[in-house]
Each structure stands twice: as C-alpha cells, then as structure tokens.
C-alpha cells in the first residue's frame, strides 16, 4: 500500500487526531478466579461479576488479564501472521477470499464506504459454517462457507485452529460472567453458540501510512456479533468512543492482555442496558501494526431480540426480532463491494 488514494480519505469530521486522549480508565479485569475452571460457584466470583457488569455498563470495552490462554499459542499465531503478511502481494492474492466464502486474504475492505488502510486474512471457527444462501427473508435455503488454508508459513492452519479453540473457551466464560452480571443463569447464552456458531478469526495488518491524518486503519464501527476478543501488538491505534463524553479514547496496549468489546447482539439481548461501543483504528506513518480479533457469533438460525427476562411493562422491547444469519450474509455482501448505501445496522430494527 503506497499512496493514500482518494478512496481511503475520510470526511473531515471523521479524520483522527493523532494525539488522542489516553484511556487509563478502561477497566482492566483479572480473570484468575475463573481461569482454570468453569463458573460453578457464583458466590466465589461475586466481585468479578460486579466488575464485569460495571465495565459493560459504562464502556462495553475492557481488558482482561490471567485469562488462561497460553502465551506460547498467542506468540505462535502472532509470528505466523507477520510471516503471512510479509509475503508478496502476488502470493497473498493466491488465497484471496471470494464472493462465495468470506475466508481468505483481502485488502479492499470498506467501512462506511471509505476504504480501510489494512490487509486482512479471515478464518472461520467452524468448517463448514452453515449460513443462509441469500438475504431474502422468505428464502430458507442454506449454503456452506468453508475455510481457505494459508499455505505459508508451514502448519499455520493448525496454529490458527488451536488458537480458535482457546478463543471459544474464553468467549463462553465471558458470556457466563455477562449473564451473571445481568442476574441471569450462567449458561443463559450457551444455546445460541453450542451448535453451528458462525464465529471467525481475523488477522489484521496495518502497514505504515504516509498520511495517517487522512485515512483510518478501520473506520468507526460497532462489531455486529456478541463479543470480540482482540489481541493487539505493542503499537497503539485502537480508539473507543466513550458513551457519555463522546470523545475518542486511545486504548493503551497491556502486554498479554486481551481487549474485550461487546457487540450489537448483546446490546439487543439486553435491550440497550449494555451497549456495543463505537470504535476505530488509527494508523501511523512509521510503524506497522498487527491485531487479531476473534468475533464470537451465534448460529445462523438465531432470532435476535431482547431477552424476555430483561423486558417488562416499564422497559418494553426496543427492537424487532431479526435473524442473525440474514444479517451476517447482508454484511458480507455489502463489505465485499463498495455500495452506495450504508451497511445494515441494528438501528434498522429499532422500534423506539
Ligand atoms: O485492530 C484493532 O485494534 C481492532 C480491529 C477492529 O475493530 C475490527 O476488526 O473489528
Ligand atoms: Fe471492531
């Protein structure tokens, strides 16, 4: 990626300030009380559940330490990602994603119709992943997405698969803590993910950018799934918008911690008690940056709507039900090409 061509340039109001506020305040939560076992005795983890609940309420964004993911596995995948992106464009394009499956390499993603300053490799957690064939609400046919294997570095696919298993384990634990923090049973969310989840892992590479004040690594957006577990390297760039102050805040990398953010599905399930935070990635002119988000997505047939237990006459449902699979396929189709209209958003299902 050489010049900042017009397709990358953000409208003036969305261009980044290169000296943003530092987020010392983003909660850092120690998961050691649950890192080696499932959440069996809620009373032993009351403090932790409270911390999770307030982090979700105030930010929808937090970091976790002592999360139980082996460091060696993280180092292996980070090294593999550097080696993969270090290849020539010609090599990487041999494993390009296609119109028929989102897995593979691509460097033309658009967020809100502006091109992102990044290149990406996507890998599905389940191979095959079952999804609707079309976005048409009345079309019940399904299709399968399958993975594209990165041929280099050697054994990279095995490393990715092993890493995804750890991401899934951590996601289930976090969803249990979130459920408890809402006064629900720990396993309340499990059914949506046990069979046919549509999660995927993304390797992001943000090359140095000659005009970092004009472009973004990823434009402002909310993640559409239930939650995201992000590994970022030591180069800063991720920014989150604080709900109350409306300011962009830079997340300071903590070595070996993971950044967790809630996605739109949790916002709908909780009827806006927890919100999915808007975030973006700023690039810089000197250093390249790598990150690895895991997007925890439910099964395609999931009907997303506020949970019965969390709505009542005083707090009626704010959303119409939508089918996750249709939403996902809609997103995939619009991200793949530049479109005149914006992406589908949970806002489209808002009733009040
Ligand atoms: O690279 C990052 O720090 C975050 C990337 C991100 O927000 C995304 O891929 O959805
Ligand atoms: Fe994101």
Tell me what you see in this structure:
This protein is an alpha+beta fold. It has a single domain (28-86, 111-133, 151-332, 339-349), classed as Sandwich (Jelly Rolls). Helices cover 23% and strands 21% of the residues. It has helices at residues 46-58, 71-85, 89-93, 156-181, 191-194, 264-269, 324-336, and strands at residues 21-22, 28-30, 61-65, 104-106, 110-111, 114-115, 119-124, 129-132, 142-145, 200-206, 218-221, 227-232, 238-241, 248-250, 258-262, 279-281, 289-296, 303-304, 322-323. An eight-stranded mixed beta sheet has the order 2-3-15-12-17-10-7-4. It has a five-stranded mixed beta sheet with strand order 1-14-13-16-11, with no helix packed on it. α1 packs across α4 (156-181) and α2 crosses α4 (156-181). It is globular and about 55 Å long. Residues 221, 223, 228, 279 line the site of fe (ii) ion.
List keywords for this structure.
IPNS-like_FE2OG_OXY; L-ascorbic acid binding; binds 2-oxoglutaric acid; single chain; 352 residues; 5-stranded mixed sheet; 7 helices; binds fe (ii) ion; oxidoreductase; alpha+beta; 8-stranded mixed sheet; globular; Jelly Rolls; dioxygenase activity
């Amino acid at each position: 990626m050489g010049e900042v061509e017009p397709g990358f340039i953000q409208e003036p109001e969305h261009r980044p300030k290169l000296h943003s506020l530092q987020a010392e305040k983003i909660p850092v939560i120690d998961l050691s009380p649950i890192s080696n076992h499932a959440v069996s005795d809620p009373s032993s983890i009351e403090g932790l559940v409270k911390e999770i609940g307030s982090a979700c309420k105030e930010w929808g964004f937090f970091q976790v330490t002592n999360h139980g993911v082996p460091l060696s596995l993280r180092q292996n995948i980070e090294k593999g990602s550097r080696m993969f992106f270090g290849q020539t464009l010609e090599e990487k394009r041999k494993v390009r994603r296609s119109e028929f499956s989102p897995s593979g390499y691509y460097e033309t993603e658009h967020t809100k119709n502006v091109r992102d300053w990044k290149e990406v490799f996507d890998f599905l957690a389940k191979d095959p992943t079952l999804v609707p064939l079309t976005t048409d609400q009345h079309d019940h046919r399904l299709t399968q997405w399958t993975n594209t294997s990165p041929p280099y570095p050697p054994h990279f696919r095995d490393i990715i698969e092993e890493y995804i298993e750890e991401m899934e384990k951590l996601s289930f634990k976090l969803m249990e803590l979130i459920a408890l923090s809402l006064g629900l049973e720990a396993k309340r969310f499990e059914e949506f993910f046990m069979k046919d989840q549509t999660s995927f892992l993304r390797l992001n590479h943000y090359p140095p950018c000659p005009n970092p004040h004009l472009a973004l690594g990823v434009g402002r957006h909310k993640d559409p799934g239930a939650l995201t577990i992000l590994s970022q390297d030591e180069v800063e760039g991720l920014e989150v918008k604080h709900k109350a102050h409306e300011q962009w805040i830079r997340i300071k990398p903590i070595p070996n911690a993971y950044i967790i953010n809630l996605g739109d599905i949790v916002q709908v399930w909780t009827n806006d008690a927890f919100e999915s935070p808007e975030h973006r990635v700023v690039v810089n002119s000197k250093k390249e940056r790598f990150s690895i988000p895991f997007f925890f997505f439910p099964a395609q047939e999931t009907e997303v709507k506020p949970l019965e237990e969390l709505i009542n006459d005083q707090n009626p449902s704010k959303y119409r039900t939508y089918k996750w699979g249709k939403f996902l396929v809609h997103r995939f189709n619009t991200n793949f090409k530049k479109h005149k209209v914006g992406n589908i958003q949970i806002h489209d299902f808002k009733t009040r």
